[in-house]
Amino acid sequence: MRAGKPLSAAPRLRFAPSPTGALHIGGARTALYNWLEARRRGGVLALRIEDTDRERSTPENVELILDALRWLELDWDEGPVSQFERSDHHRLAIERLLESGAAYPDPATAGEVRAAKAANPGLGYRGSPRAVPGAAIRLRVPDQGETVVDDLIRGPVSFPNRPQDDFVIARGDGTPLYNLAVAVDDAEMGISDVVRGDDHLSNTPKQLQILSALGASPPRYAHLPLLHGPDGRKLSKRHGADSVQELAARGYLPEATRNYLALLGWGTEDDTTILTTDELVKRFSVGRVGRAAAVFDETKLRWLNGRFMRDLGAERYEERLAEHLRRNDPEALASFAAAPPSTRRAASEIVADKAQTLAAVWPLISFLFCEPQIDERAWSRVMSGEAPALLGAARDRLGALDGWELGEISAALEALVAEREVKPGQVYQPIRVAITGSTVSPGIFESLWALGRDRALARIDAALARLGVASAG
Ligand code: GLU
Hints:
Elements: E1 12-15, H1 25-40, E2 44-49, H2 59-72, E3 78-82, H3 87-100, E4 103-106, H4 110-119, E5 136-139, E6 146-151, E7 155-160, E8 167-170, H5 178-188, E9 193-197, H6 204-213, E10 220-224, E11 227-228, H7 244-249, H8 254-262, H9 277-283, E12 294-295, H10 298-310, H11 314-328, H12 330-338, H13 341-351, H14 361-365, H15 376-382, H16 387-399, H17 406-420, H18 424-436, H19 444-451, H20 453-467
Parallel strand pairs: 1-2, 2-3, 9-10, 11-12
Antiparallel strand pairs: 4-5, 5-8, 6-7
Helix pairs in contact: 1-9, 3-5, 5-6, 8-10, 11-12, 11-13, 13-19, 16-17, 16-18, 16-20, 17-18, 18-19
Glutamic acid is lined by residues 16-18, 50, 182, 196, 200.
């Protein structure tokens, strides 16, 4: 067994998810904190898949976790290592513990264990070694003293040894149990820093006892406070998005998600809230994570995401949108990708400050890439009264323009509004319905401009024909 790395060596961290489901928001935060800490300190991040629960671990869940990490753009340097495939190492460690007397075989039944504990109140279960086939293997826990977890976030947490049972490290059939596997893997992988959720704090004294019995130096531990929903209850499905895939589907940017997750438990000294990933890497420190439960509030994530979307820049915007459509709407991606680059760029420009999430973008710009679907209710509401005549007049003004610059379009339509002494919406809404099929779109001048002269005029003509109004053509 290799002892823990000397302090001067580069730190070695690990993210160790159990593939019993998708990666949840709490797990994503744990992954991010490990990644940030490893990157800031020039260390190594290993990925270990804790798949020893053979019933609940599935290859599909492993794929979901890898997909989530890739989507979050959190890369790892070693692994993925399957914990299950390391069971030979776990068994060897158990043999060593038996040889040294730190562990012993104990065939006691659950009833015998209960009876022994009842006979010695306040003392954890202490069995007596009996090497019979099918005996479970227990680790000896001292009667005296305490096991102290010197936690980077909580400070020292002591667990008295006396009430703790000699605990099982291998089942009667020889299967190594969870805490044994984690301690052996952490030691053999040379892990220097364990950053994980504080639901694991109660496992830590057991892992420390195993490490000590193996003669391995323990890693430093940091247990992250729980995540709550805005109602103060433990974060769960009822608070909305709970998996990384769900966040991706809702159109959050990986960079905004990283920024928001970093702030769940940690903050900068000057309370900056918008941080690029480079800034996070420079400034994050797991030692400065707070002790209180952090609140995941999707409305804050959405706000932050809107800020990132606005500042992406057209090129990056286009890339992010295409990635989002690839994951969530391949048909839309096909229409988007088939359009001329100038249309894609124009779409990104006119929508940049209009959508808070990538999921909100396509409905706003699809009219640039597909024939509009007329929303009949919007049509009948808007295309009444003066609307057909005003639409016809707008068509004439637009058709008479020499060019198709944004300034020309807006000047022509503003002049029409002024001359007819109508409200702007009376001119703009019929045009909007004519060119997009709906009453919701980016700014009307921008929308006309992005659509291009020929397509814009053709759609207005089609609307006029539908209304039975002859256009000047
Ligand atoms: N596999 C554990 C989990 O997914 C994490 C164990 C650890 O980080 O030590 O909760």
